[in-house]
Amino acid sequence: MAKLIRLQQTIDQAIDKNRTVCLLKEDVTQLKLDVKELKADVAILKTDVAELKSDVAVLKTDVAQLKTDVKELQSDVAQLKIDVKELKSDVAQLKIDVKELKSDVAQLKIDVKELKADVSKIKEDLHFTGIRIEAIQNDMRIILDALIPDRHKALKVEKLEIQVENHEDRLVVVEHTVKGHLADHESEH
Questions:
Q1: Please, which residues have CB within 8 angstroms of residue 167's CB and are 6 or more apart in sequence?
Q2: Which is nearest to 165 in space by CA: 137, 145, 189?
């Protein structure tokens, strides 16, 4: 019986070992399936990693280009700031110039008004001077006709006529000068 007990123990041990082997076989089969799935996952992950490496390379190139673009834009912004500062200075100077020009225009308007009044007065004076010269000439003729011809008086009359002619010449020069000033003044405006 001792042999039988040993045999039974050996059989029990063999059954236990068989169960263990069966369980281990099931575990091995499951592990093989898991390894197969994991290999498939690893293959997918390797593909994903390769794609990501490619994307990273593209992104690095893009980042490098963007950095270059940023530097160029920063340079452009700096130049634009300088340009804006210069333009602000120019605008300020232009505002000052415009203010001065407005003041000059206002003064010129006043000057034109005064010149027009002066020209009008000079024209009026010229007109009356012309009338007086004609009156003097008529008076001289009357006096000459009434007087006895006398050599001395004739010389005085000639002098007076020369003076009258000189006055007429001066009037023509003055009138010409006034017209020239008027023309110059009107051409300026």
A1: 129, 133
A2: 137
**50 or 108: whose pLDDT is higher?**
50
Report pLDDT digits (tens) over 29-38. 999 999 999 9
The helix/strand/coil state of 1 is coil
Using alpha carbons, select from 93, 94, 104, 96 the residue that is nearest to residue 188: 104
Q: Determine the Cα–Cα distance for residues 10 and 17; give it in Å rounded to an integer.
A: 10
Q: Which long-range contacts (CB under 8 A, 24 or more apart) does 53-56 make?
A: none
Tell me how far CA of residue 15 lies from CA of 11, 21, 24, 127, in angstroms: 6, 9, 14, 155
Among residues 95, 112, 91, 80, which one has the least CA distance to residue 188? Answer: 112
On whether the pTM is more than 0.85, the answer is: no
Task: Say which DSSP state 147 is in.
Answer: S
Q: Provide the token pair at 178.
A: 């006034």
Dihedral-angle region of residue 150 (phi above 0 means left; psi in -120 to 50 means alpha; beta otherwise): beta
> Taking 80 as the threshold, does the pLDDT of residue 178 lie above it?
no
Mean pLDDT of the chain: 85
